[in-house]
Amino acid sequence: MDNIINIIAGVIALYFIAAMLMFFYWLYFHKGSLKKALIHIVVSLALLCLLVGGQMLRWKSINAQNAAEQAAKMPKAVTIQPDLLAILQANPDPASVEPTKLAAIANLAEQHLGEAGKEYEAPLKKYFVYYNSHIASEKLPDTMAAIKFDAQRRNAERGF
Q: What is the 3-state secondary structure (H, E, C) of the chain?
């Protein structure tokens, strides 16, 4: 399909060049018809606009199909376990939460949580940063842990 559209665009370009040559022929030699030259220029530009408009509509439909396919491939949102949800809602100090629960909350950063991920993003980030900077086997500075959290949340919500 793209090759056919490219061929049509090439023919329209040649038609436009011929129309411009007709116009310049009239301009320099005052022979030929100005009216015919301008009509050919307008017709070639109208054909070009139709071709570009049709291509834009085609791209829009292709983009809509791709968006629908990507939405269908998107994993369903994971529900947060009730005990972890209670911790996130209470929002206690991360040091007071037992390490296994803290690890489970930190692992939620990699999950597609949907609306819950947006609602509890601040407490999730706080627990994730604390876990990765104090408890994890590979300890990270707070800033690096926050950057890692943001990247993991962005990727999880995109479906990667």
A: CHHHHHHHHHHHHHHHHHHHHHHHHHHHHCCCCHHHHHHHHHHHHHHHHHHHHHHHHHHHHHHHHHHHHHHHHCCCCCCCCHHHHHHHHHCCCHHHCCHHHHHHHHHHHHCCCCHHHHHCHHHHHHHHHHHHHHHCCCCCCHHHHHHHHHHHHHHHHHCC
